[in-house]
Design goal:
The chain is α+β, with helices and mostly antiparallel strands. Among the domains are: 114 residues, Beta Barrel (OB fold (Dihydrolipoamide Acetyltransferase, E2P)); 103 residues, Nucleic acid-binding proteins (OB fold (Dihydrolipoamide Acetyltransferase, E2P)); 118 residues, Nucleic acid-binding proteins (OB fold (Dihydrolipoamide Acetyltransferase, E2P), Beta Barrel), CATH 2.40.50.140; 33 residues, no CATH class. Helix content is 17%, strand content 34%. Strands 8, 9, 10, 11, 12, 13, 14 and 15 form an 8-stranded mixed β-sheet that branches. Helix 9 packs across helix 10. The longest helix is centred in the last third of the chain and has 19 residues.
Length: 670
Amino acid sequence: MSRIDWGCLTGTLMRGILPTDCSVQVIATKLISDENEADRRYRIMFWDGESLYKHGLLITSTLSPPTKFSIIRVGTDTLPEDCRESCVRKLEKDGQESYAYLFHHYILLQDGTEVGFKLTKQSATKLPLTPKSIGAKMDEGSATGSLSTPPNLSIPGPPPAVRPRTEVSTPERKPNREAVKRNLAESFPSPKRQNTGQSNGAGGGGTKATHQIAGIETFMNKYKIKVRVSQKKDLKEISSSGGWKGKVISCVLSDSTGDIMLKAFNTEAEMLNSTLENGSTYLLTGARITPVRDARFNSTGHHCELIWNQNTQAIGPLLSDPVNIKYKFVPISKLRELEKDSSCDVCAWVQETGNVIEFRSKADKDLKKRELILADDSEGGSSISLTLWGRMAVDFNHNNRVIALKGAKVGEWNNVKNLSIGFSGSYEVEPNNPRVEDLVSWSNILQNSQSQPPSQLNKSSTEEEFTTIQELKDALTVSGGEKRFNLYGWIIVIKDENLFYRAHTPPTGTRCNKKVVPGSSGFECSKCIRRDIQECDTTLRFNVRLNIADYTSNSWCSMFDAVSLFNMSAQEMSELQEKDETKFQSHLSSKTFQPFIFKVSSKIETYNHAPKLKIVINEVVPISWVEGEAGLPWKDLIQYQISQVHALEAELGVAHDQEYGTTWGESIDI
């Protein structure tokens, strides 16, 4: 008589866990693929006597689907050697999570025509006695599977005569308890106690791993990996737009073959946070394997990630044989060749350490950072800036030490490369590595000689202090990231329409600056979702549109902080316009066709599916023609222009002194 495993779906498939051996009843079957396909796909609904599971998917080219009310066995322990592995995939719909079970084999225990009804604990006793059957294979031209039946059960004939039972009197025997114990001990010897291999007595199991990170796949159910924990984030609470709220934490696990990310949510997140420590080695098993959903938030390079659940076990920390991180160091002088937002490993000496800076981001988040100057011996000595974020920035105290960065993010600002870790990446202080030993010796010599290595990357910050509008357009065409430049040019026109706007400035000190509009109860801010803002919590800001030009091109720009241009605040300019329109227009006109140094931020944006150059002027600096005046001294500007002439002469193959018999020093006193 076949029975189902009551409640087996609740603890396995409905939680995203592959079953090892589970007997369930089939409630419905539906073909969802083309009949002419090699692998047919059937959606199957399972019942375990307590729960209904609707996401079973049978993919097969040899088996027929089980009929309604059939009892079947599924699981990893029931697969033949030549059969594909089953797997579980995560599904999301309307903020609700579920799991689909993809399998390629089953064992038919009892056909649905013999069962005939949906089983309950009361009705299960009515099942007819039927022998257990093997996996149903499809016959040619038949839609149902054939059942193999043991011999003699299908042979017709009269039932055998029943032999009358004869009572035999036997003398009463007392059981020999010692003999029973001895026989049991000989037949079932107790297993030998295995060495757990633990270094600190926590948990159980040996320290021998069955798999490596590079071999982790989604179809695996049983594995044991020996890993080192790094990049462990702080436990934080998050909420989604669908109304879900909970806790989340993540870290990166590493071994000699690669890295993989481990995540946990809610109660499991608290368990992970209290169990794993950064830099320690553990033996991990039982975490659910899922494919990476978004590679933007997973820089490990692995196509899978692990989810901590109720079956996850971590043995450790292991002190006797820890996992050493495998590095692929890139010299600092070669970082200029890497793309922005890429990751790399760097070994360097901490030349300078800045203070912790606390600030509020545009998204109203309180952040902490610390900037370091790293140096190495590449190309005679190179240096680069490193930014640490969060707790890593607060806890750093390794000045004049050699550190090894793992997974540092490459950034770029104003054509200068930089590194950052904290949101991603980690570091070690002088790990056991030949490259580290070389830099320790190099830094000791450098500190004794009191010489500083030149920066091979930061030279461009002074060489490209000025640029032209056309060069700016060409540079952004190649690389569309935001850049900062200095432009020397003239203002052609300033639009006097919509020169100001009223912005929200919350009294709490948070940053908004969003345009507000009058409402029934006050001003309304769409960013802060408020409709009762008073005028005292707003301020006038500039929204200047102006066209600037130099000897190469011209471009429209925006300016939101125009005090350096008009020498007046937005409120003062607005009052001047209301009081005397003529003086207001005269003040605007006085700024046109005057040479200025424009400090701009520029980037390429997409507008109507077409690229568009966006230039924002951050500051306007006048030219100081008289010594002692405020502004940029004219000699600094002339030196830049002379360098441009020298570059042009080198390109043309001519020299100024050869053509005209004079030098710049003789012509201009600079």
